[in-house]
Amino acid sequence: MAHAEAVGTPSSPDAAKGGTSGNPWLVLLAVCLGVIMVMLDGTVVGIANPVIQADLKASLSDLQWVTSGYLLALAVFLITAGKLGDLFGHKRVFLIGVAGFAVSSVGIGLSAELAEVIPGVTPIGMLIGLRVLQGLFGALLQPAALALLRSAFPGEKLHQAMGAWGAIIGLSSAAGPIVGGVLVEKVSWESVFFINAPVGVIALVMGVLLIKENRTPSMARIDWLGVVLLSGAMFSLVWTIIKAPEWGWTDSTTLTFMGAFLVLILAFVLWQAAAKQPLVPLSLFRNASISIGTLLMMMVAFAMFGAMFFLGFFFQGVHGLSPLEAGLYMLPMSAGMIVASPLSGMAIGRIGPKLSMAGGLLITALAMFLMSQLSIDASFVETAIPFVLLAFGMSPVFVGATEIIVGNAPVNLSGVAGGLQQSAMQVGGALGTAILGAVMASEISDTLPGNLGPAAQGIPPEQLTLLEKAAAFGTAPPGVPQQITDAVHSSFMSGMHVAFLVSTSIAVLTALLTFFVKVGRKTEGVPVHVG
What's the predicted TM-score (pTM) here? Predict the structure, then answer.
């Protein structure tokens, strides 16, 4: 890795002066507008999912892929995207990411129309494919945005820019459920994605006018074989987990996909050990703190994103709320993150990451446990308490794990470590959605016949299967007796409770890992990406 150079190293005299042709705070605004699209889409989809399911006749696994496909595309491509910025310029990569994200968002809103002109493609299949494409462009956006901020702001003001960045990202996350609820309820689910078009156009115009190009002079090449192997391995793993309940865990198809994952991930590791310029240098994992920090990020994202997937169905399907009301119910968690994030940074500075993260994970476990006790008619206060606890529990973990991963990495690999941290979070979220979805489906299948009582004896097996699928969304087919609706809702609640209890256990176990890490080095001017 002797070829690696820091992106923070200016490539021209102009870059040394700031790397922009205007006010750096306007550059911050332009960059944030691009990233706001990514953040909004990450929070509004949960609100839109129930309406998408009804409109496009999607299955539970289809909706899981609406989330998982997007997350996987982000996870697999983040490190590669950072290196593309080093090679071809971060402004260029950022603008391509903005344009691609906006165009693919419009395409998602037109999924039904596009499917009509492409033979053999269903509307939900088109939506999933475009969500994957959207994730790829989102991956271009995020690392390039951070690199551009480092170029725009001198070192002594960079922390101010990062503070403003965090506040804007927090506000966009908090606004997501509300904006999504209003658009879904008052306009359509498609409008949730159409709104990215004007935001993208403004970000593009500001980016072209305000941002000056900078790149790192480097001889690096993209490890395309590594990208292919890692992408194939993660696809095989998540596809297996999502489809195994339908196929059967011992079915030959399940075993084939799981075998493909093992072969591909082994080939990836062997190739990374042999490659001259690997996608993920294995030398990073010789440091136990980096390895544990990566695992921490994956497990926390697993618990959070996996459990949160079902809340939209709980609020709208079982609880009977409108999309806007569901967004308001989820607001305490998003708003809590705005307050909790800066406080977490202060806590880590005072008592260190070990105790901060351990305490955060225990608070997270308590929040997940309280969610496992929610009733069908839970009030706003009953849901708001665990949501606020979750915000204050997750924040120190995300901040601390980032410090551990990047701070313990060698200076010339800090950018790769940063990409690794983001990838671990996205992969953990995708796996959490898949695995907890399988757990929930299994619990529904086990409990629905008992909840139906004697009525189950008169229901044909194929109709019982349809009821199980409906129960996964918290809804019952129209026109069925109230007894069956109650049984479907009760089965959904049983499945959701088990999913949150699994997340509770994961949070407690993860807390133990925090005591095996050490504080990272405080290095000024570390690179954002390594070529």
Answer: 0.72
